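Bug report (template v2)

What were you trying to do?
Predict the complex of my protein with zinc ion.

What happened?
Run completed; filing so the output is reviewed.

Input:
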Amino acid sequence: MRTDDAPLIRLDDYRPSDWLIDTVDLDISLHPTQTRVRSLLALRPNPAGQTDAPLVLDGDELALKALSLDGEPLDASAYAAGPQGLTLHAPPRRGFTLTIETEIDPAANTKLMGLYRSSRVYCTQCEADGFRRITYFLDRPDVMSVYTVRLEAAKAEAPVLLSNGNLVATGEVPGSDRHFALWHDPHPKPAYLFALVGGALDHVRQDYVTAEGRKVELAVYVEPGKADRAGWALDSLARCMRWDEKVFGRNYDLDVFNVVAVSDFNMGAMENKGLNIFNDKYVLADPQIATDGDYASIEAIIAHEYFHNWTGNRITCRDWFQLCLKEGLTVFRDQEFSSDERSRPVKRIADVRTLRSTQFSEDAGPLAHPVRPRAYKEINNFYTPTVYEKGAEVIRMLKVLIGDDAFKRGMDLYFERCDGTAATIEEFLACFAESSGRDLSHFARWYEQAGTPTIVASGRYDAAAQRYTLDLAQSTPPTPGQAEKEPMVLPVRLGLVGAEGDLPLRTQSNAYAGDGLVVFDGPSLSIAFEGVTEPPIPSLLRGFSAPARLELDLSEADLLRQFTRDSDSFNRWQALQSIATRALVAAGRPGADPGALGATAAELGRALGGFLAADALADPAFAAQVLRLPAPADIAREIGKDVDPDAIFSAHRALSTAIGSALLPRLSGLRQALETKGPYRADAASAGRRALRNELLGLVALAAPAEGAALCEQQFETGDNLTDRLAALAAMTLIPGERRERLIARFAEAYAGEPLVLDKWLMAQALIAEPATLERVRGLMRHPAFSLGNPNRVRALIGGFAANLTQFNRADGEGYGFVADIVVALDRTNPQVASRLLGSFKSWRMLEPGRRRQAQEALGLVARTPNLSRDVSDIAERALA
Ligand SMILES: [Zn+2]
């Protein structure tokens, strides 16, 4: 498809479909290269549509085999059919049926959209518009139909046949080696939620009874021989179902719930009704192949996809502009689930780290867009951190703003009112306006205005009057297509921290007293707190109550006091992050004096030393977060322009090393105290101890390389779980030399035949911040563990390299050229994965002029390549615009 042909699709142009499809009867006869699809559609004119409209069905690379209307073959003059669509020129103005036959080649489908084969398993991915690669259809989310699906396949090849809904019948096909399964899904759904799976699969299963008393059979399907790795996913599923009943009052609504893991998958997972299909990375777990982080992500993603059953499936999106309606809300729900299952403060810190590194950076670059975009060329490029993570922050702010009770009533109203419909953000917000009695029209700007707001805060203390005055000002920088910005509604949770902890909050008007929540919705605001008996430290954006940048000029001494005294865990963590950020921004600027870090390093070392001695064992997971400095990429974003990645990296390395040296005397004792005895357990407390212990290992590796290398070798050889062994590898990558290469080789040997573990091995090497890494990565592309055809391998090795701040951004431009070449090569087979990879260029404009020129050249090279997919050309154009 040519770039120039891609039309811009606009939210303002939305109009309802002229036709509706009440039922779909699919008869799919699976074959690796010639799958026959017969689709019987019951159509009728949409009362809300145009009355004289032709019927235009979507298609993508389809070939029509037969077509009949109400059972009669249609004359060729009555329609036009091509790979991209099927048009009936003058359909009857009444209900009628259409039978469409197509034939498709799953084995040749390398785009992994529509029906394809992955390691001998047939599977589908239809969101956003993959269903049109299976049959001609009104492939838009506001056309919701009841599906009945008959699947047929050779018994030996596909003994398991799954689709959405409940199983109605199975049987043999007489006189053949084939069998069939008939599935019926009573819940109307859009085509993007259709799914089928066929193959030889093992499974684990469990009975579940919902709070409403419905008996449900839960099952997780995996490649043969891997059933013993499916238990954690199954257990997570049962736990999140119970949680959704308790917290959101949502019960499951079918007799079966199936999860299937496949090894070739473009995304993380997909919430198809009753049949979730997962990237196997987010299902398979045992202590030998999954880290603590993997256990936590599996739990979170299983929950995310399950929660979609209500927020996404029962209530779907009217159009793709409303994507955040299901994604932002469902991310919020899965974050809440994980917070309840694990440590809430630690989960919040981890989520904010992700938000800042992925979404703030998107907001700061050429790919910035609102949570609800107004126009797109390729919707696949809008499955972004802005829609997901910032979309979740908007829900979180809404809850803070209107309070827990009104939020809960609003959710109940939404479930009640919008069930079975394809909804909009406006309909969603109306429920909360009603439940809270508040006007949310200004708040709705969060969906329309892109960019990260900055809050500039300053305070004055008047000792004589015992008054503390806090001044706030907000602004949002311009983003593509939005030069002028309006003030946002920012819920600012705050406190005043005194010598003994929080001071009471009293104002003259009493407007902000009590709960410490200030709704900051104008360009500026001044609040005078009365009866303040000592100079306080303002603690703002507690719990990160709004996704904003905060500029607050506290002294290092105040930040250190805040770290020890703030009652808000998030801001305790933030206080030390702020000290480190400020020092790294100063030292990471071109021409800065690296010696300037010395004083801060000493202060941080002292503070962390005291903290580790007093508190570390009380909450090791939190301590691990405290110990981890902001990433070099965060510092680059803070500096914002003329960024020199090498200068930032050197400063970062110097500070980490200095902190490690200061802590060195305590490290081995602490590591010993944190050792977990007995067999591996995946629970949050054990994971927290490992996290801190391994954070300390990284510091030893930097501060005392010889001692660190020995510890890494020992931990790798004696470790009984992947978390510790991978941490040993990661720490060893910080120490150049022969021992590192030996451990890298040992790791590959130990995990040969474990592709998901080798992904981590590939990534650990791609992240080494040394000039030789590019050659290493080129070499690894020839390793048998790597394949350009598998999205997980590409994300690990090439995606890992593109996330390597200093090596992707090499001054000679070789890093850009390498990634650009791969994007172009990959685009021919898998445009979605290619365009994701091209998104790594999203921060190129903030670089210093030399690198900027090199990055622009590489992007230009991609943009000028003939016959680019719409996915890649869209990103290239926007990145260069
Ligand atoms: Zn989702």
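What did the reviewer find?
The chain has 26 helices and 32 strands. The first helix runs from residue 231 to 248.
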